[in-house]
Amino acid sequence: MTSSHSLSRRSLLQGAGSIGALGLLGAATTAARPAEPSNPPKKGSVILFQGDSITDAGRDKKTPDANHAAALGNGYPALAAGALLGSYPDLELKIFNRGISGNKVPDLEARWQADTIDLKPDVLSILIGVNDLWHTLAFGKTYKGTIQDYETGYRGLLERTAKELPGVRIVICEPFTTRTDDDFKPLAGYRAVARKLAEEMKLTFVPFQSAFDAALKAAPAGFWLGDGIHPTPPGHALMLQTWRDAVGI
User: Fold this and answer.
1) Catalytic residue among 4, 5, 60, 227
2) Could you read off the pLDDT of 87-96 as tens digits, one per residue?
3) Could you give the CA distance from residue 44 to residue 167 in angstroms, rounded to a whole number?
4) Which domains does the chain show, CATH number per domain?
5) Is 53 a catalytic site residue?
6) Which residues of 31-66 are buried (b: 16+ CB within 10 A; e: fewer)?
């Protein structure tokens, strides 16, 4: 049985196996993995993953503890935890997943104090945007958010976080899709906003869309994103590789 404060040996081995498989994905990425981490974590660092269903990845929301297999879900945050805890077993890292399926920027705002500020992360990774578009299409009668609303709300979250958590390293992840239908073409605008905010505020930017675009040369879209939005196991592995390349840990 898994301790509430640590990953099980089985989970760590599964994570290590997934990380090993990343070597097979190297040709699909735009940058080579650095031989040594450019930004290794410090002892006791808290790393927090925030976002929507892509980050949530089926995590157990009744289990809030750091480094717990069920609490990390089945996606790239769990792979990151396995890789980082396995690489730095002496650093006492604490890794949390607080992604929630269906979330948009306003949903993050509503829970930011409890699910971000109170956790006092040293590294905060945010992936948000696809629902800010999708909900205007699927729930247009009740949600009418615009790209400007996305930018204003996102900027407010980032400014608040920088003010309340001096020294936090914020990582902005690019919203992505492999869908090419007209409904999802506006996502390009949301991606542009995410990049703009990262550049203006000098934050780390993770180019997920670029990674998946490059990956299509190696395998078809469904291999990476089953429905064009939610990653398959190799899709999550590619996300982890891209994240680590950008973040440097």
Assistant:
1) 227
2) 999 999 999 9
3) 15
4) 9-247 (3.40.50.1110)
5) yes
6) eeeeeeeeeebeeebbbbbbbbbbbbbebeeeebeb
